[in-house]
Amino acid sequence: MSPTPSLNLDSFDRNILEIVQRSNRATSDQIAEQVGLSPAAVQRRLKKMREHKVIQADISVVDPRSAGRPMTFVVQVTLERERADLMDAFKKEMKLHPAVQQCYYVTGSSDFILIITGKDMEDYDRFTREAFFDNTNIRGFQTNVVMDAVKVGLSVPLAEE
Amino acid sequence: MSPTPSLNLDSFDRNILEIVQRSNRATSDQIAEQVGLSPAAVQRRLKKMREHKVIQADISVVDPRSAGRPMTFVVQVTLERERADLMDAFKKEMKLHPAVQQCYYVTGSSDFILIITGKDMEDYDRFTREAFFDNTNIRGFQTNVVMDAVKVGLSVPLAEE
DNA sequence: GGTGAAAACGTTACGAG
DNA sequence: CTCGTAACGTTTTCACC
Questions:
Q1: Do A109 and B144 touch (CB under 8 A)?
Q2: How many degrees, rounded to 5, is the angle at CA B59 between CA B53 and CA B65?
Q3: Which of A29, A30, A21, A22 is nearest to A55 (CA)?
Q4: CATH of region B11-51, choose from 3.90.1170.40, 3.20.20.30, 3.40.190.10, 1.10.10.10
Q5: Are residues B117 and A157, on separate chains, in Cβ contact within 8 Å?
Q6: Gap from B54 CA to C5 C1', in Å?
Q7: What is the pTM of this model?
Q8: Contacts of B70 in chain A (CB under 8 A)
Q9: How confident is the model at residue A134 (pLDDT cuts 50, 70, 90)?
């Protein structure tokens, strides 16, 4: 369940990660200079970290507005029954649905928290019908409209320890 | 307020974005073949989209577990007063705090929704003290512990229109 | 881990549509 | 204004130390 790729990261690796998770278009030369290694060593480490899935992906971040999806919603979903098979079906549906940007299965007041993007309210309304109305296992959901995406990112701090 | 860089994207651009937001390490040759353009044309379009901030960033996604931050929390924060200056201060604090991966200012039952990463519960507890306890403007907060990050990403669908 | 040569890649100038 | 082709400079990759 937790195939954490145990690859021991030293402080060189962490410094490299700190840079590429801000910009993976930095050249090995630039990175090498900042971390105090040769360009080839930087590349070897990056290759290893990609192989071991320490670096999970290398992506371009697209402006949602340019993509014609200026609205973001945070949705809390509560299920009727927490049956494993029904939950798996729900997870699968969320993974496949293009409007779902993020989906977390959580403890607490609700069962799932979703981050949804859409063109407008009507678009969101359509999503809720498709995803929730047909699903008899959904007890209810609560929507928060995002007015300001104060901070958005996937970067993780790598400091201490 | 909304400096959407009006750069009209045609279907070539959208196809290119669709590829690079999954993997920006695809070479121009690979992209060119898939979209039906020459490698140079692909590069030119990518350059333009980066200049116009249609592509906001190019990043490596680091596995939080490898980074020593295996836990994720979704936090709903309610403010005491919605005063502009206090809110701006809170936003600024969230932007700066390394544990805060995402922060949304929302309408609805709560005022802010945060995605927090941490090493363990103790780590999270420390965060709440730092960020919330000292802040007299915070009425309360509710925590959801993430058991399964079903879907995580920043990709936006680019279909229709 | 470093070095250097070879291969792959991105960049740019040019002519054409 | 944008394409494709081709020459050019840069970056990555790989064998070797």
A1: yes
A2: 145
A3: A21
A4: 1.10.10.10
A5: yes
A6: 39
A7: 0.94
A8: 4
A9: confident
